[in-house]
Structures are given as C-alpha cells and as structure tokens.
Amino acid sequence: MRAGEVSEVSQDYLKAIWSAQEWGGEPMTATELAKRFGTTKANVTEVLKRLDELGLITRVPYRPPVLTEQGKAIALSMVRRHRLIETFLVKSLGYGWDEVHDEAEILEHAASDRLIDRIDAFLGHPASDPHGDPIPGADGAVDSHTPTLLAEAAVGSYAVLRVSDADPVVLGKLAEAGVLPDVALDVVDRTDDAVTVDIGGRRETIAAALAAAVYLDAAAAR
C-alpha cells in the first residue's frame, strides 16, 4: 500500500505517530492526537480503528498506537514529501525557514511520488531540510541521531544539528541570533532561564524556551 492509497487524514495520523518519537519524544497517545488535530478523542479512536483494520497500526488497549512496517513506510513517505517541499520552497522560491511548514502541510498531500522524486533530483538529493531534519530516501531509509538539547547542554563546543519548526516565532528569533543548522557554537554558561553561547566570537543569550527547540551534536563540533 502506498501513501496515495489512504486518506489525507490517515496520512497525517501516520506521520504524526512516527514524528513524535523521531527525536526521542514519547509515543503519541489518542489524547495527544486529539489535541494535535483539534478533534475529539472519539474521532481519533475511529481513525485509529480504521488504520488498525488496514494493517497500518497495532492497537493495544490503554497503550499508544504502534506503526506496522507498512504504516511506517507510509509515514516516512509523507515525511519525505514534507521535508523536500520545505527545502524546495526555501532554496528555489525564496521562502523563509519560518514560513514553509504550513505550506508543506498542504502541498504534501497533492504532490505525486514522481513530482517528489523530481524535486529531490533538482535539489541535488539534499540530506536534510532547512531546519536540519533528515530527509528520508525514496526507499524509506532515514538518518538517526542522538542529540543534546541546547537547554540542557554542558559547557563545551557543539554544532547545531536541528531546530524544531513547531513555532515560527521561535524560528524567527533563533535566526536573528544566528542559531541555524550546521552552525558551530560554544556553550559558555547556562542557567535555569537562559543559555549563553559564543558564535564566531559573538555572544548571544538564548532564553530557555528558545534553547529547548535547538538540538546539538557534540561529535560534529569544530
């Protein structure tokens, strides 16, 4: 079964279930899915029941849904579409990295696999999107990382691996501070309220709420 053979709602649910744990988060429960999609828990239960009947998830009472291999393949196909579209919008159409998420949420459902493959080739097969999230291959292969949150990082040298795109306001503020994927920085001080970093000799104080959106890689530090 391919992504285009299931409904847009099913595509969204499968992608959300997979994405919740990509960066070390907890599995997404029915209650969290209801909050994510602005619907009732009863509606979520009906969608999950259909996904279970299609063999795309496994349901256990009082436990979060678990993707089957087929469900995971569709989820990764949707993630691939989303991230390639975001990359295309930024690199080819001049969008800001804080403008593309909602656009991609719409376009990912309309794009064919052929179009997505053409975009991938046109962009030179990028490894990650503008926020640093890895782009799955056409075969579903995707890089995994064990990052450190800037909000929890010890003093030391790091490279920015990824910035969460959940809030465009946060993205805008981090861009102003120069905290972008692949940027090298030194954490020089951390309190409960903020983290002080050095980026190319320039000091920036990043509020804890912003630092919680930044994922670092010590292994890639300069």
Describe the structure.
By secondary structure, the protein is an alpha+beta fold. The protein folds into 2 domains: 1-144, Winged helix-like DNA-binding domain superfamily/Winged helix DNA-binding domain (Arc Repressor Mutant, subunit A); 148-217, SH3 type barrels, CATH 2.30.30. Helix content is 42%, strand content 17%. The longest helix is centred in the middle third of the chain and has 25 residues, at 69-93. One of its GO terms (molecular function) is transition metal ion binding. It is found in: Cytoplasm.
What's the arrangement of strands in the largest beta sheet? Answer: 3-8-4-5-6-7
Kindly identify the CATH topology of the largest domain: Arc Repressor Mutant, subunit A
Ranges where pLDDT stays below 50 over 5 or more residues in a row are none
Mean pLDDT across residues: 94
What is the terminal-to-terminal distance? Answer: 44 Å
Largest sheet: 6 strands, antiparallel
Report the total helices: 8
Structural class: alpha+beta
**Oligomeric state of the chains present here:** single chain
What CATH architecture of the largest domain would you give? Orthogonal Bundle
- The gross shape turns out to be globular
Radius of gyration: 18 Å
In total, the number of strands is 8
What is the CATH C-level name of the largest domain?
Mainly Alpha
How many independent structural domains? 2
Order of helices and strands: HHHEEHHHEEHEEEHE
Name of the CATH homologous superfamily of the largest domain: Winged helix-like DNA-binding domain superfamily/Winged helix DNA-binding domain
Q: Please state roughly what percent of the residues sit in beta strands, choosing from under 5%, 5-15%, 15-25%, 25-35%, 35-45% or over 45%.
A: 15-25%
Helical residues, percent:
40-55%
